[in-house]
Design a protein that fits this description.
By secondary structure, this protein is mainly beta. The protein has no helices and eleven strands. It has strands spanning 2-6, 9-12, 17-24, 32-38, 45-50, 56-58, 66-71, 76-81, 90-97, 111-112, 116-121. Strands 2, 4, 5, 6, 9, 10 and 11 form a seven-stranded mixed β-sheet that branches. Strands 1-3-8-7 form a four-stranded antiparallel β-sheet, with no helix packed on it. Strand 4 (32-38) and strand 5 (45-50) form a beta hairpin. The radius of gyration is 13 Å and the shape is globular. The model has no long low-confidence stretch (mean pLDDT 96).
Length: 122
């Protein structure tokens, strides 16, 4: 089981980025897949998740700006991030879990990627 993130980078406030997470060893369609982030000096927090039934969950701080979606044919998870602010600056991690009761709680995820850095300047 392997998750590999990409797509991070540096953007100005108001800009957009799309993160990708390529999975191998299992099908993303069968798991709850999430994006979580950790800013310096802060705890890791859930950003968005999508479950095997297609349901999605977003943190209040990103609702209306971020969109999580899967491409099952490519076995890849994405996070489209629009209207970025400096508060979105963090290391973003892709994670997978099975039957996750609280999709934004990192404790329920069992597989993790290495992370991709997102930096938003004002």
């Amino acid at each position: 089981v392997q998750l590999v993130e990409s797509g991070g980078g540096s953007v100005q406030a108001g800009g957009s980025l799309r993160l990708s997470c390529a999975a191998s060893g299992y099908a993303v369609s069968s798991y709850c897949m999430g994006w979580l982030r950790q800013a310096p000096g802060k705890e890791r927090e859930g950003v968005a998740s999508t479950d095997s039934d297609g349901s999605t969950t977003y943190a209040d701080s990103v609702k209306g700006r971020f969109t999580i979606f899967k491409d099952n044919a490519k076995n890849t998870l994405y996070l489209q991030m629009n209207s970025l602010t400096p508060e979105d600056t963090a290391m973003y991690y892709c994670a997978a879990g099975y039957r996750v009761p609280e999709p934004l709680d990192q404790r329920h995820y069992t597989s993790w990627g290495q992370g991709t850095q997102v930096t938003v300047s004002s």
